[in-house]
Design brief:
- By secondary structure, the protein is mostly beta strands.
- The chain has a single domain, classed as Beta Barrel (Porin), CATH 2.40.160.
- The protein is built from four helices and 16 strands.
- The longest helix is centred in the N-terminal third of the chain and has 28 residues.
- A hairpin with a 2-residue loop joins strand 12 and strand 13.
- The N and C termini lie far apart (49 Å).
């Protein structure tokens, strides 16, 4: 395992250095941003997020006083390499790698969020194959992980980046997009260790992305195999309103685990934000539950939320991007998590979370474009 980790680290380092060297030589030799072979970089940057967290666990009535504890400390959250480009006629690619020393538990691509090739047939149709996010609705899910400061239980548990093939249709107005996708099921992570791909668990997804004046949608219907030939159905409705400096989304997802109890497994999340100058203020709350499973009956059918649990969270925060350095973001947030067990024998838990963090990125593409102008 140590040898494998060292090998992966060397490969990633070599790839990063080679990409950077190729990119710099490209700009030094070319008079414009397109080479003779038609290749053009669209993304090349590093992004980082670190933070200081304080978690205070409140004592629960009937439990020992030692439950009233506080944990705190600095930690790194994300260190990503992003690379994208276009080449040939209609081809494009996108790559986002989490630079992590630990090898993936399920496959070599565990720490790779995106690594896909897309072919645009015409203005309306495109084909895509490779590692990407499962076509799942909702605006919390759609946001880049580095921009999600706290989240639903579903967001934290879903194994969303999978190898997949997609057919994408975009209408004439470019405001509406329909995606049909076949992928590995997100439940592959929970069926074994190291040979998950061989389980043959697949996911079938349809997603509609809509863009109306002041209103956007991210709706999806998914069928994911939990075991071979046995599916869990996800229906997700993401709705977002944008008016001036305000934006507000509401996501709802229902997971059909038990036909006799069709609405026992779901989440709802909402976020309202107001931006002015260099500051973004936001409030965010959500509720998850999984009452379709009992923690005392195996196997569990839904693993996107702890069995027999309900979780309510609510809070708010502020983000600041200096006008002179928009690639830098300072953030602070305060929120409460309240776990409410539905079965005797499970423990109630209340946690107050405080977080202060710094995010920054280095956009090499932007740097070289500016350098060329001078």
């Amino acid at each position: 395992m140590k040898r494998e980790k060292r090998l992966i680290t060397k490969v990633l380092t070599t790839f990063l250095l080679a990409s950077f060297a190729a990119f710099t030589s490209h700009f030094a030799a070319a008079q414009d941003s397109t080479r003779q072979d038609g290749h053009r970089f669209t993304h090349l940057k590093l992004e980082v997020r670190g933070q200081f967290d304080i978690d205070h666990h409140f004592g629960v009535t009937g439990q020992p006083a030692t439950w009233d504890t506080t944990d705190y400390g600095f930690r790194g959250k994300y260190f990503n390499l992003i690379l994208g480009g276009e080449f040939g006629k209609g081809f494009s690619y996108y790559f986002r790698q989490r630079i992590i020393a630990t090898a993936g538990a399920a496959s070599l691509f565990d720490n790779t969020d995106f690594l896909y090739l897309q072919y645009r047939i015409n203005d309306h149709w495109a084909l895509r194959a490779g590692k990407e996010a499962i076509a799942n609705g909702g605006f919390e899910y759609d946001a880049a992980p580095i921009d999600v400061l706290y989240f639903t239980q579903y967001w934290g548990n879903v194994y969303c980046f999978q190898l997949a093939g997609s057919v994408i249709y975009t209408d004439r107005s470019r405001n509406h997009k329909l995606t049909l996708q076949v992928s590995n099921s997100p439940y592959v992570k929970f069926v074994g260790s190291g040979n998950e791909w061989s389980q043959g668990l697949l996911g079938f997804s349809v997603m509609w992305s809509g863009n109306f004046p002041h209103f956007k949608t991210l709706y999806s219907v998914n069928f994911f195999e939990r075991a071979r030939g046995k599916f869990v159905n996800h229906v997700t409705l993401g709705n977002k309103v944008e008016v001036g400096r305000w934006n507000w989304y509401i996501d709802y997802q229902n997971r059909l685990v038990n036909l006799n109890r069709p609405f026992d497994c779901f989440f709802i999340a909402t976020r309202m934000a107001y931006s002015f100058r260099d500051v973004n203020l936001f409030l965010k709350a959500g509720y998850d539950q999984n009452l379709a499973d009992s923690p005392f009956v195996l196997p569990l059918r839904d693993v996107m939320m702890d069995p027999g649990q309900r979780c309510l969270f609510y809070g708010g925060g502020v983000e600041y991007r200096p006008h002179s350095a928009p690639s830098v973001r300072l953030h602070a947030c305060l929120y409460m998590s309240h776990y409410l067990p539905a079965y005797q024998g499970l423990l109630e838990e209340k946690v107050l979370h405080a977080q202060i963090g710094l995010t920054w990125n280095v956009d090499f593409l932007h740097y070289f474009q500016q350098k060329k102008e001078f």
